[in-house]
Structure to design on (115 residues):
């Protein structure tokens, strides 16, 4: 079985740059919601460590909560109509690395399972 871990990367598509300073939270939703990690993205739009390293991985439902409005407001830009972008994912043991990127602007976002 491949070891499983979770990471993220945030890109500011409105400005064409990594989203440095994006506040985010990572929650395990089962059996009760528990905050696993909170942080702010670095100059590359990533966290300095995985959201969930292989040794701490447990299968289940998780949420990543990205404070897109706070990020754009801190840059002096109109935060648009997005507030907190919530991505709910189901993670399974043995599926390898889960990378959850967020591409965002004040008006839209997209995500996918990266590598």
């Amino acid at each position: 079985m491949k070891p499983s871990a979770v990471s993220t990367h945030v890109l500011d598509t409105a400005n064409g740059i990594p989203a440095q300073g994006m506040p985010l939270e990572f929650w395990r939703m089962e059996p009760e919601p528990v905050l696993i990690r909170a942080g702010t993205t670095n100059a590359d739009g990533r966290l300095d460590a995985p959201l969930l390293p292989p040794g701490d991985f447990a299968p289940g439902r998780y949420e990543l909560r990205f404070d897109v409005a706070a990020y754009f407001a801190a840059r002096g830009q109109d935060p648009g109509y997005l507030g907190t972008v919530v991505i709910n994912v189901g993670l399974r043991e043995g599926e390898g690395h889960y990378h959850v990127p967020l591409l965002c602007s004040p008006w839209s976002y997209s995500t996918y399972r990266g590598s």
Summary: Residues 2-111 form a domain with the Immunoglobulin-like fold (CATH 2.60.40.180). Residues 63 and 88 are 4 Å apart (CA to CA).
